[in-house]
Specification:
Blueprint lengths: L20 E5 L11 E4 L5 E3 L8 E6 L15 E5 L2 E2 L3 E2 L11 E9 L2 E3 L3 E2 L2 E2 L2 E8 L6 E5 L1 H13 L2 E2 L3 E3 L8 E6 L6 E10 L10 E9 L7 E7 L13 E2 L1 E2 L7 E2 L4 E9 L8 E9 L1
Parallel strand pairs: 7-9
Antiparallel strand pairs: 1-5, 2-3, 2-4, 4-5, 6-13, 8-9, 8-12, 10-11, 12-13, 14-24, 15-24, 16-23, 17-20, 17-22, 17-24, 18-19, 18-23, 19-21
Length: 291
């Protein structure tokens, strides 16, 4: 990519596009502290989210240094919540942690004080919180944005990160017979292939010699040559298949191969090695990030 650094003389940031805070009534006996994540129930009443209640709307974080008021009567007490960018909250560890390359990545509420990268962990199903924009070097905490609009943007990000191929039923020929290249339906969206997943309806035993190779390709829709996006071989290295358990293809490492245009056509083909093996009825999906 070639670009030339310059000063855009007419560029002028304008004000604040969103309200910095909201005041919301609280659920009965709920209380909110500074920097703690608040979600709302079906009546629009806020409460802290401990990371075990999914599918709630995050309206922000406690915005004042004191604890909010609290009342045994639902809706009688209010909390002031921030919808701003922030840092300083802890994050999860290991696979639940963010890195500096996580720009515009959704976060989930691990607990009322903590961000997590995973939607669920150790049996806890979480609510979406907003977006992360890398790590603050000085303290190692994520830069993030929370609030209703950030929550909506995070939902949209999750959807656009998983566009492209629909689930396509795959029915193989006999063990020693190849299955010709066929079409995988997809939405006409520009983007990048991030995963190819197959879910079989029955088990399959891997074999070093007598196996099948599944190849997903893209074609330009104008008669051009096919380009491999990913392969999956039912050999020992590929491992056994377990019924109703998703299995991932190995994606191409060729530069540009995983880029998709609106006009590209996706296909799948099955070839056989040795005396072959019949691939069980399966569903295959090509996941694409819309960018």
């Amino acid at each position: 990519m070639t670009a030339t650094p310059a000063l855009v003389g007419g560029f002028t940031p304008i004000g604040r596009p969103l309200p910095e805070e909201l005041a919301r009534p609280l659920a009965a006996n709920a209380q909110v502290g500074k920097g703690q994540f608040v979600t709302v129930d079906s009546n629009g009443r806020g409460a802290l989210n401990d990371g075990t209640v999914p599918n709630l709307v995050c309206i922000g974080q406690g915005d004042i240094s004191e604890l909010s008021d609290s009342s045994a009567t639902a809706g009688a007490a209010f909390a002031r919540v921030s919808q701003r960018w922030f840092y300083g909250n802890a994050m999860g560890t290991s696979t639940d942690a963010f890195t500096d390359s996580d720009i515009g990545v959704p976060f989930y509420i691990k607990d009322e004080n903590t961000l997590g990268k995973l939607s669920n962990l150790s049996g806890s199903n979480r609510s979406l919180g907003g977006l992360v924009f890398g790590i603050k070097t000085q303290d190692g905490t994520p830069y993030a944005w929370t609030g209703v609009v950030a929550w909506l943007m995070a939902r949209a990000t999750l959807l656009t990160d998983n566009e492209a191929g629909l689930w396509q039923k795959v029915v193989d020929a006999a063990a020693g017979t190849a299955t010709a290249e066929s079409i995988i339906p997809r939405k006409a969206i520009h983007g990048l292939v991030t995963a190819i997943i197959i879910t079989p309806a029955a088990a399959l035993t891997a074999d070093a010699t007598n196996n099948a190779t599944l190849t997903v390709r893209k074609r330009d829709g104008a008669g051009g040559a096919a380009v491999s996006l990913g392969t999956l071989v039912t050999d020992v290295a590929g491992g056994n298949w377990v019924a109703f358990t998703p299995k991932s293809f190995t994606l191409s490492v060729v530069a540009g191969a995983l880029n998709l245009l609106e006009t590209d056509v996706l296909t799948i083909e099955i070839t056989k090695g040795g005396t072959g093996v019949a691939v069980p009825i399966s569903a295959v999906r090509v996941a694409q990030k819309a960018i």
